[in-house]
Automatic annotation (TrEMBL):
Superkingdom of origin organism: Bacteria
Protein's name according to its UniProt entry: DUF115 domain-containing protein
Pfam family, any one: MptE-like
Domain 6-hydroxymethylpterin diphosphokinase MptE-like positions: 196-353
InterPro entries recorded: MptE-like
Length: 430
């Protein structure tokens, strides 16, 4: 045990004994740690620099300089080398500084190598593991290196941090003033005007169970069971997302409702033949040729996006929740229709079994398996490949589930991402 560690640990043990005990269990010896030098120096963990190697303090000053002037309580995710914490504590307006550990082993290693006692002993500081809380706290700073190095326990908060950080960038495609958006909404205006209001479906279930079907690879495990529902007089209502429709039809499974929101969905995904008994729920950004060709009942709705603000004023329609993916309005529709129990199929948010989607080839729906550089924990507690936007969609679904405690949510597979707030369905989970 180094002199630094003893001094640092003594402060932690006195102030946060539970954190101290957890830090003793961390295995810092498994980390590949190297000193990296430039104009200055820093620590590299598993090939990731914790800070700048040229000027750590200037980097911390740059970060601290973006603190909102009225922020008295600040959250820092990641511990780094302590530079940002020290800089924030130099600002008189900061009354509370919450430090959320994203990788316990990294922090334990830093405690051995550098004196951190100054910021640790400051009475304004509180410390906890990021994963101890279900949601991220605002305003926050997130140390970029530790968003990469975050360990399994803290991965859910890491995903929320990255999703929040990317929010403005992701929303750039949905500018209501963009010519292509204006053109699309003009082309679907007449359809929305003629078609039914999605709100007509709200409250119509009378407690009937709903299966919401997405296109994750685990869906393929359930084709046979879902096909068997065709012969049942009383069966759950089947709501599927647009990309799941064709794989289901090929397997002889006919959903009751298809939900579509994406302007890139074409007749290839939603072939209109023999759809007379299947309802289509859509948002006006959908392709007008796909909507018009649909033979069954059609229901239009909106999301809360400002894209629909003007059309909503002219043509009032029901609203569905959208958090980036079509899975969100599909689940919200089930809840608004009155489902007391919702079971998710193919809601993987990941690439289990080295596949991207059920019923589609690698890259057919966009992402290719070889391009996946990220991970989530699956229902077995193991890391499984994914991509960044899938992790954001997962975060938003978990938030939706947490906001509807009156509904029982089940997941039909352990192979995809663990979805907080859901239980594994005893009939479908192997």
């Amino acid at each position: 045990m180094s002199e630094f560690f003893e001094r640092n640990f003594q402060v932690i043990e006195q102030r946060w004994p539970a954190v101290a005990q957890r830090l003793l269990l961390e295995n810092a010896g498994e980390l590949q740690a190297d000193l990296v030098e430039g104009l200055g120096s820093t620590l590299s963990i598993n090939g990731i620099q914790l800070t700048s190697r040229h000027d750590r303090l200037a980097e911390a000053d740059l970060q601290a300089g973006s603190l909102p002037p009225d922020a008295t309580a600040v959250h820092v995710y990641g511990t780094g080398l302590g530079d940002l914490q020290n800089r924030l504590l130099e600002q008189a307006e900061v009354e509370h500084l919450y430090v959320h550990i994203l990788n316990g082993s990294v922090f334990a290693l830093v405690l051995q190598l550098l004196d951190q006692s100054s910021w640790l002993a400051d009475p304004r500081v509180e410390m906890l593991y990021a994963g101890d809380l279900a949601e991220l706290q605002l305003p926050f700073f997130a140390l970029p290196a530790e968003l990469v190095l975050a360990d399994d326990f803290n991965a859910k908060i890491r995903d929320r941090l990255i999703s929040e950080t990317h929010l403005a960038f992701n929303n750039r495609e949905f500018d209501p003033r963009a010519p292509e958006i204006i053109e699309r909404l003009q082309s679907t205006f007449g359809l929305v005007q003629r078609d039914r209001d999605v709100a007509e479906l709200f409250g119509t279930l009378n407690g009937r169970e709903v299966f919401v079907i997405a296109t994750g690879p685990s869906l393929e495990q359930h084709f046979e069971r879902l096909r068997g529902l065709n012969s049942q007089a009383e069966r759950p209502l089947l709501i599927c997302v647009d990309t799941a429709y064709r794989p289901l039809i090929i397997q002889g499974i006919r959903p009751d409702i298809v939900v579509s929101i994406d302007q890139r969905i074409s007749a290839r995904h939603l072939p209109p033949e023999d759809t007379g008994a299947i309802a289509l729920v859509y948002l006006p950004m959908a392709d007008p040729s796909v909507i018009e060709a649909w033979q069954g009942r059609r229901y239009a709705g909106y999301s809360a996006s400002p894209v629909y603000h003007q059309m909503r004023q002219q043509l009032p329609r029901g609203e569905l929740y959208v958090g980036g993916s079509v899975i969100h309005p599909a689940v919200d529709l089930a809840v608004r229709m009155g489902a007391e129990q919702v079971t998710l199929f193919g809601a993987d948010f990941a690439f289990p079994h080295d596949k991207t989607h059920a019923g589609w080839g690698d890259g057919d729906l966009g992402p290719q398996l070889d391009a996946s550089r990220h991970w989530v924990l699956d229902g077995h507690g193991q890391r499984v490949k994914t991509q960044l936007n899938f992790r954001s969609y997962l975060c938003e679904l978990e938030r939706f589930v947490a906001g509807h405690p009156q509904v029982r949510f089940y997941n039909s597979s352990r192979d995809g991402a663990m979805i907080v707030g859901t239980a594994f369905h005893p009939e479908f989970v192997r």
